[in-house]
């Protein structure tokens, strides 16, 4: 299967030069005019190598390089920079650039750079699985077997599992906190209702007590005392009786 080269450069001249350079070669050239389009084509173009201009509209060459290394590990990136344009070697190194070429360039220099990068990538791709298989076949120290190196897919699955466990743990903690909050709110509500009932009972008792009217004190002392016979009255009566006789 022929290699695919993704070229990102806003110069139509550079695009034509590169396409003409690879006319008699098996590599397929996918040319785009800005960095955003280059990022959009990373997945469907599946390039074997990326050639990106450092200074172009949209995402610059450093970002295209960085995204390429993240989304397609092992894909070499060649940066293009104009003669009078600034080039940050430290930034290019941090982005993971494999090499850079100054424009205008000679077609043979471009071919040499790309051939070297493709060759290095192919050697690296074949060397890693071979080393992993050899390590799996060889016995370990003290006769123990060596576990095979996990693949990228296995590592990704492990990362997803860890994230899922973390989310479940967070959900359980959140549910426990909500349950404690609801119980606390319920207790507070019950306490408030109990206090309200006690207050209503006390108010009702006070109202009932205020409605009972005490007997007037004047009525207690208004009853007449029993009559006591008088000696003088009796004497007068007896006198009258004697006079009548």
Secondary structure elements and pairings:
Elements: E1 4-8, H1 12-21, E2 28-32, H2 35-40, H3 42-45, E3 49-53, H4 61-71, E4 77-82, H5 89-95, E5 99-103, H6 107-137, H7 152-211, H8 217-220, H9 231-244
Parallel strand pairs: 1-2, 1-3, 3-4, 4-5
Helix pairs in contact: 4-5
Explain what the structure shows.
It is a single chain. The protein has about 240 residues and is α/β, with parallel strands linked by helices. It has nine helices and five strands, in the order E-H-E-H-H-E-H-E-H-E-H-H-H-H. It has a five-stranded parallel beta sheet with strand order 2-1-3-4-5, sandwiched between helices. Helix 1 links the parallel strand 1 and strand 2. Helix 4 packs parallel to helix 5. The protein is elongated, with a radius of gyration of 52 Å. The termini are far apart. The C terminus is likely disordered.
Helical percentage: 55-70%
Low-confidence stretches: 130-146, 218-222, 228-245
Number of helices: 9
User: How far from one another are the termini?
Assistant: 173 Å
Strand composition percent: 5-15%
Structural class based on helices, strands and sheet pairing: alpha/beta
Rg (C-alpha, Å): 52 Å
- The mean pLDDT is 76
Overall spatial form = elongated
The tally of beta strands, per DSSP, is 5
Topology pattern, helix = H, strand = E: EHEHHEHEHEHHHH
Biggest sheet architecture: 5 strands, parallel
Strand order of the biggest β-sheet:
2-1-3-4-5
């Amino acid at each position: 299967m022929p290699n695919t080269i993704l070229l990102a450069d806003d110069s139509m001249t550079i695009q034509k030069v590169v396409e003409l350079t690879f006319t008699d070669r098996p590599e397929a050239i996918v040319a785009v005019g800005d960095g955003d389009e280059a990022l959009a084509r990373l997945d469907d173009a599946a390039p074997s190598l990326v050639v990106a201009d450092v200074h172009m509209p949209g995402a610059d060459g450093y970002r295209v390089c960085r995204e390429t290394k993240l989304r397609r590990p092992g894909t070499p990136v060649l940066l293009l920079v104009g003669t009078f344009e600034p080039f940050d070697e430290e930034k290019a190194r941090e982005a993971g650039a494999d090499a850079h070429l100054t424009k205008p360039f000679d077609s043979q220099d471009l071919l040499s750079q790309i051939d070297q990068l493709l060759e290095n990538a192919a050697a690296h791709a074949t060397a890693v699985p071979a080393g992993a298989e050899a390590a799996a076949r060889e016995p370990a120290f003290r006769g123990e077997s060596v576990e095979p190196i996990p693949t990228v897919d296995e590592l990704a699955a492990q990362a997803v599992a860890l994230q899922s466990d973390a989310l479940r743990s967070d959900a359980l903690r959140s549910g426990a906190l909500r349950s404690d909050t609801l119980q606390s709110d319920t207790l507070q509500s019950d306490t408030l209702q109990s206090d309200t009932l006690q207050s209503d009972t006390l108010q009702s008792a006070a109202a009932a007590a205020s409605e009972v009217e005490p007997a007037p004190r004047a009525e207690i002392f208004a009853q007449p005392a029993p009559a006591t016979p008088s000696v003088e009255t009796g004497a007068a009566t007896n006198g009258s009786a004697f006079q009548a006789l």
